[in-house]
Amino acid sequence: MASTPGLLPLKDAQFCLLIVDDELTCVMAHHWTIIHNPRSCSGKSAKQWPMIAGLLAQAGITYDLHVTEYAGHAISLTREAILTGARNFVAVGGDGTVNEVLNGIFGQTVVPTSEIMMTQIPIGTGNDWRRTVGIPKRIEDCVAVLLQGKECIQDVGVVDWLSEGAQQRRFFCNVAGMGFEAAVGLKANADKAAGKGGILGYIPALLGILYRYQATPVSFKVDAQPLPSRKFFTMAVGICKFNGGGMKQCPDAIVDDGFLDLTFINEVPKMVVVANFPRIFTGGFVKIKYVEQHRARQIEVLTGPETMLEVDGENIGQGAATFSVLHKALRVAVPRT
C-alpha cells in the first residue's frame, strides 16, 4: 500500500527526502553556487551563459554566480563560498573547471566534505567525467537535475608529489595520467589557450608528440607490492572510465568501489599505437600484450623528473607520484532516471 507523501527535512535544510510509494527520492535544492569558467571550450561557455541564465530563471532556481578569471581561480572561489555558507556547487565549464571546484571542496578543512554536493553543466572540450557518473549532455537536462535530481556518491582520487622540494597534493574525480597522455594533454591545453581547441585538434597533437616521444624508465608499487622495473609509454589511474574526449582508458573502473584502476602501457612500437588507436574509444586496447591492468588502493610511481603528470585533463607537475583513494567521498547530483 502506498504511503502518504511527506517531507523529511535534513540537517542543512538544503534539500529534502520525498517519500513516495515507500521509496526515498532526493529533491534538489533550488539555490546553488555556480562557478562559471567563461573560457571553457575556447569561449563557448561565455556565449552560452545567457541561455543558461534564462533556463535557470524559467525553472525558478536561485543561485550565487562566481566567474573565474584565471587558471586556478575556481579553487579559491569555491573555498571562499564555502566559508560564507555555500554547500551546493555547479561547475559550468569543462573537466578542468570540475577539478578546480573539487579541489576547492577537498582542499579546505572548515566544513566536512560530506555536507557539500557538486554537479556540472558541461561546456568543455572533453566533458569526460559526466560520461561515467551520468550527468546529461543537454543543458536543459542539467538544469532539471538542479531542480529535481538525485544524489550519487563516488570515490575521489588523491595524488601526492614533490615540486621544488615541497610536497604537493591534488584531488581528482575522473582520471589522472602520466607519460604520453600527459604530454599530449599539455599540447592540447596550449592549443585550447590559443583558441585552437577541440577534439579534432587533439588527434594531430597526439600524432605529432607520438613521433618524438620516448618511453620512460619506471618502477611501481601497487598496494606496497613492487612490480618489475621497466620502460613505460603511458598510464591512466581511474576513478571513472573516460578521458581525452571519450577515450575509455580505464574500462573497468567503478566510481564507488574504493579502488583505483590502473591501466599501464609498457614500451610499445609506435605503429602498434597508431594501429590500435580506434580501440582506445571502446576499451578494447587493453587486450593487446603491451597493456597491464591493476586495481589498488594505493599506487606509487617512481620515475624521472621528465615524466609529466596530469589530473582530469589538467597538467599539474612532473616526476614521481603516489596515488590513493578516498572511498565514497564526493556527493554528486545526477538525473533521477
Write the layout of secondary structure elements.
Blueprint: E1 6-9, E2 16-20, E3 23-27, E4 31-36, H1 40-59, E5 62-67, H2 73-83, E6 88-93, H3 95-106, E7 117-122, H4 129-133, H5 139-148, E8 150-163, E9 166-172, E10 175-179, H6 180-193, H7 199-212, E11 216-222, E12 225-226, E13 230-238, E14 260-266, H8 270-276, E15 291-296, E16 298-303, E17 308-311, E18 314-318, E19 321-334
Parallel strand pairs: 4-5, 4-6, 6-7, 7-19
Antiparallel strand pairs: 1-2, 2-3, 8-9, 8-19, 10-13, 10-17, 11-12, 11-13, 11-16, 13-14, 14-15, 16-19, 17-18
Helix pairs in contact: 1-5, 2-3, 6-7
- The number of distinct β-strands equals 19
Compute the average pLDDT. 89
Strand percentage, roughly?
A: 35-45%
* Percentage of residues assigned to helices: 25-40%
Shape assignment: globular
Radius of gyration: 20 Å
Textual characterization of the structure:
The protein is α+β, with helices and mostly antiparallel strands. The protein has helices at residues 40-59, 73-83, 95-106, 129-133, 139-148, 180-193, 199-212, 270-276; strands spanning 6-9, 16-20, 23-27, 31-36, 62-67, 88-93, 117-122, 150-163, 166-172, 175-179, 216-222, 225-226, 230-238, 260-266, 291-296, 298-303, 308-311, 314-318, 321-334. The protein has a 16-stranded mixed beta sheet that branches. Strands 1-2-3 form a 3-stranded antiparallel beta sheet, with no helix packed on it. The longest helix is centred in the first third of the chain and has 20 residues, at 40-59.
